[in-house]
Amino acid sequence: MTAVHENPSRVLTPQEQEWVDKFMDETTLFLGPDPEIMRDHGIAPRSDHEELAIAAGVDRLEVERIRKRIAGALDEGYEMCEAQGAAPGAKWGDLTTAIYTGSGDVSYLSCHGVIAFSAILHHPIRYIMKYWKDEPTVGINPGDGFIHNDARFGNVHNTDQSMIMPVMRDGQIIAWVAATIHEGENGACEPGGMPSGSETPFDDGLRMSPFKIVEGGELRRDLLTFLQHSVRDPKLQLADLKVKITAVRKIMERVDAVIDEVGVDTFVAALRTTVEDVEVEVRRRISELPDGTYRFDQFMDSTLKENILIKFACKITVKGDEMIVDLRGTGPEILNRAINSPLCSVKSMFMQAILAFWWPDLPRCTSAMSCIEIISDEGTWADASYDAPMGQSLQASFRGFSAFQALYSRMSFSTPHKYSNVVANWFNQINTFLWGGVTQHGDMVGNLCADLNGMPGGAKPFRDGEDAVSPLFCAMADTAEQEVMEEEVPFMQLVSKRLVRDNMGFGKFNGGMGYEMIVAAEGTPQWGFMTVTSGAKFSSIYGMYGGYGCGTYPLAMVKGTNVYEHIRRDPSKFDLSIEKVMNERPFEDGRYSTYHMGLQFDIAKDGELYMISQGAGGGYGDPLERLAESVVRDAELGRITQKVAEEIFGVRYDPTNFRLDAEGTEAARQAAREARLRRGKPFAEFCEEFVTPEPPESLHYYGSWGSETEDITATVFTIDGPERVSAPLAELPIVMIPDRREVRIAELEARVLELEATHGIEVKRLA
Amino acid sequence: MRVPMTEYLVIDLDSERWVCRVCAHDLGSAHDNYKPGTLVYDRDPREIHQSIIDPERYEYTFSPDPTYCRILEYYCPGCGTQIEVEYLPPGHPPTVDLLIDVPALRAQWEERGVDAEEVHNYGPGDDAQQQTAALKAIGHVR
């Protein structure tokens, strides 16, 4: 017999609620990422101190003077990190320094470096303030410094490590100063900190929630040792911690001088006023855009282990001074693949687009995006849950950048006052080699080549995009000197920065071109390479207004042979390009293969070739409108082939002397336009033929199919194999993809059985 | 007044129609997306992004896979200008990329009190101004 006790619910009294809250506070088993903090990209309400300081009156000229001095201090700190940092990322400028209000809002960021951090570093500070400030075992005191890297607590991605220090007066926190560097190596399942192979969050490496590693000015050696023990490159871990601490202290020295001069209240008011002014200005700028809805959806072709198609949906609605970004329709998170990103990281790349390509004149602070509403359901690959691996979260977050970049050119096209140029999409993949192993000096290392910074730029309406100019996330990042790196690591770039023909987004103005890289290791007991990008089957960026996007990019390899030996025997073989090597196969004993760009850490024997190419920027406008002289010049320089000149651009010339055939071109272009009118179908008729109710059966597709549905389509893997489902995100089963090697083995076993049956071979197998 | 909305599209506020910026062809109601007024072609992406390594021997060749990716080319039915290009999975519904609130657009320009085409520009910077002016002089930029 079961006794039934009626327990009618009732509202707790304030006293009871206080007891419950106290009990919960004291007995919380794990203080993980706080959704209240992590879902919020708004600025904090004015603190009492800020309210009083601003009420006392704000002298705008004084604020501007303070801001300039802070900017100088931050730039000085930035340069210290760049000059002294041990991480390759630091040397190339992949870092930032910033000052924050007492509540953690970024008030100003260094003029160089990665702008995306202005949307992200308020999260860990809010966490520190909420959980550690009054925690008796932690606390916040002058001289303390906090570190974190895990993007679940607010970061661009897990390779970035911060050093966050409070500015205190009379026991009160009045500001924060931080330096954050892309450190690379972080003890993940693969070297370099951005594992394409992570299948659980625990493969992603260091999981540093914000914690105090500097106490009263002293670096905690016990915690440092733990961190060094957890990564492949303990010297790097120590060196850059010291660099960041030194840089932050230098900035704080300058800040202290400003505070001593102007007083605490004026300083506090200046930080807060900057944040508030930017929010007001952002609303004004939104109101300049035409009201309407603008959509830009993207498709990614890889989990970095196998080819799929997954959607990144983005619709922006503008109404008056309000902007709403809606990411619904984006594909679900894949719970055993590295491509997922927390929403905060995607937002950080929204901010990168806003402050680098929308309104680059604004102070770089949290409020540049705080008034923009973002709608997203947790559980997508662009808004991943706590349990999803995120080793290569840039796959989702960089598409957030591309969406914002493309959409702003559409939203702002008509506006009479622009703050930046109309531009087609920048390339958005980190096509570079990550590497790791034992160097010629006997050190264990793991990191990456600077070629990720060689992303080509998008075309503008009045000029071609720049070749291999800079990464989308850091305008002043450097592609570095490969020869310098070769003194430290046991591989050479046998080909470095050689442009690949026809590799541009074609248009009236072409997107910038990318270059190829060919690497081979030698003289190391253990070495390996990996690549971590997508876009080998589906172009990763698209063009603008009739211009085309980039092509697709393979990883090409020659294994089983030592090309150094070949070249030593016959130096004439040192004439390499991906095209030449793969098509002519000059190394007779080599095994030639291509692969998508998600190569998990692959052991490289001496002299085995790994070959990749940087991508291309998006083209702008109809290629038939490109100046014919520009097309011939491109052909003469070897940037494009005659086939492309004729077929894409409709240009005719004499290939022996590159003399333009003006009449032939005019006729060819007229014919090309007429051919378009003949083959183009009226939109409704076209849709009737082209549009299908669901994706092709052979595609493993993830995301909404079209934008008129709330359902997400996904291929899930059941006991009976792959099965397509379509349901609202919340009702979808967990998506996990089977091990590709097991899939391959199953295919081969089936083939063996088929062949045995065909040839009447009887084989006895034990189960 | 005609408001340039993309490189090849204006909205005529008087007629409330999408109009081709090149040939003034009518592309439909400005209250809807412009695509229904266009001609569309489903392009095999390998024709645009041509293979650099031998497609007979390799799976990944610098060319998109046509079973993953199609390129939809949108043409003006009047002049054949390629006004937009869209990369989509085969069979995926074309995106409704622009839906403009026409009354709000009109109000915005009435308040500005200037002609949208006359003041149109591609953004700040001496290089942008100089290059745009030079290209306008030879009729290469609208």
TrEMBL record, chain A:
Upper classification of the organism: Bacteria, Bacillati, Actinomycetota, Actinomycetes, Propionibacteriales
UniProt cross-references to Pfam families, sorted A to Z: Hydantoinase_B
Natural source organism: Nocardioides daeguensis
Domain Hydantoinase B/oxoprolinase: 92-623
UniProt xrefs under PANTHER family: 5-OXOPROLINASE RELATED, HYPOTHETICAL 5-OXOPROLINASE (EUROFUNG)-RELATED
Extent of the signal sequence: none
Full protein name: Hydantoinase B/oxoprolinase family protein
Cited InterPro entries: Hydantoinase_B, Oxoprolinase-like
TM region(s), chain numbering: none
Superkingdom as given in the UniProt entry: Bacteria
TrEMBL record, chain B:
One Pfam family of this chain: Acetone_carb_G
Protein name per UniProt: Acetone carboxylase subunit gamma
